[in-house]
Amino acid sequence: MPQVHFLDVTNRDGVQTARTGLSKFGKTMVNFYLARLGVAQSEIGFPFLFHEMPYVRANVALAQAGAFGELRLSGWCRAVTADVERAIPLGLSHYNLSISTSDQMIAHKFRGRLDREAIIAEMTAAVAAARAGGAETIGVNAEDGSRTDEGFLTEFALAARQAGADRVRYCDTIGGDSPQRIRERFAKLAAATAMPVETHCHNDLGMAVANSVSGALGDLDAGQDAWVNTCVNGIGERSGNADLLSVILAFSHAFGIARAEIGDPVDLSWARRFGLWASYAFGQPLPQNQPGTGRNAFAHESGIHADGALKDRHNYELYDDDTLGPFPADWHARSGRVVLTGEYGGMAGFRHVLDGLGIDPGDDEDLIFQLVQLCAAATSKPLTDDELRLIAAYPRELSLLYPGQLG
Question: Which terminal residue of the chain has fewer beta carbons within 10 Å of its beta carbon, N or C?
């Protein structure tokens, strides 16, 4: 039976969000949380960019050390052979290679530099380079796929498959698709190519989650697995991408949709920790009505609702509050007298906090102390309990984030 899988793009599309940002250590924490949540794959960034390379090396080392469980790490590259060849030495096994396919982009982005034939030639050469470099899986992205006519989209996807790609990503780049249309287009494309079509939906019309779910159902209609792109808290370019938790909840609880089988070992008990950490790290407060993690997601006030919820919470709640895990109660957020550790902290405060969290630094105490200072400097915020635990558990791998900076 075809299954639904989640490929989160927070560390690629999400970090491109205007007026916000995330440190390389923060991007590492995204991978940590995605692994705990049971997501299949994380698109961790741009391995061909010089400033991403230490981060990619560190995260590959963390993955090899078991810090991310079964989470697969993938790199995003332009469908340009030189980008792929530059990325390959970093040790990633999974890639998504992207190029624009719509007539709008051909005419007004490429401006005569590429036509349809050249687009396919560039894409297939990049796929061949990734295969030659040892890639285990390759997804090919049709940027602006929702404005690409079905004939060329099918030709593009079939060429990608013949070149060695495993999936094609249909990008609703400007968020203009609609649920019925995208389901039909996904079903046709998946059937014509006999491979999964991956959803990548933006939220310009407020339909990113609905379109992602509908596109995935089109895959299932065609007998193919579905791969759904998401971002934590729905962050992303302009109005954002499909919200990770909302999509998971839809496939778990939505009427007529929950029949779909989720192929990932999802553990929603990490949902609140991840969502609230991301709000803190990105500096973007969660809306009160954010599905699952907002302050009002399980709040009742009006007489009819309050009366019904008090009698039986299922009268007015679709799923159980406790499935999303506890709200964080981190050391740094304590009220009153508290001793913290961070960028300018000393050894006494460092030891006090680690002891309070039950963390034994062992023989790596000096390295962990330096990493705490560097990571706090990078985030410009007090470190959370989960951040401190990851640093203490994998200091040697995390030290690759800061080449030449540790004594």
Answer: C
Q: How crowded is residue 48: how many other Cβ atoms within 10 Å of its Cβ?
A: 21
Q: What is the pLDDT of residues 82-126, one digit of tens each?
A: 999 999 999 999 999 999 999 999 999 999 899 999 999 999 999
pTM: 0.97
How would you classify the pairing of strands 72-78 and 41-45?
parallel
Comparing CA positions, the residue from 162, 164, 140, 142 lying closest to residue 152 is 142
Q: Which residues are CB-neighbours of 154 under 8 A, at least 6 positions away?
A: 188, 189, 192, 193
What is the enclosing helix (H) or strand (E) of 399?
none
Strands (E), 184-253: 197-201, 226-230
Q: Which amino acid is at 62?
A: L
The token pair that represents 204 in the structure block? 């310009």
Provide the phi-psi class of 45: left if phi over 0, else alpha when psi is between -120 and 50, else beta.
left
- Is 239 within 8 Å of 202 (Cβ atoms)? yes
3-state secondary structure 306-334: HHHHHHCHHHCCCCCHHHHCCCCCCHHHC
Question: Residue 354 and residue 365: Cα distance in Å, rounded?
Answer: 10
Tens-place pLDDT, residues 28-50 = 999 999 999 999 999 999 999 99
Q: Please, what is the Cα angle at 347 between 342 and 350, to 5 degrees?
A: 50
Environment class of 310 (CB within 10 Å of its CB; exposed 0-12, middle 13-18, buried 19+): exposed
Tell how far CA 81 is from the center of its chain.
Answer: 24
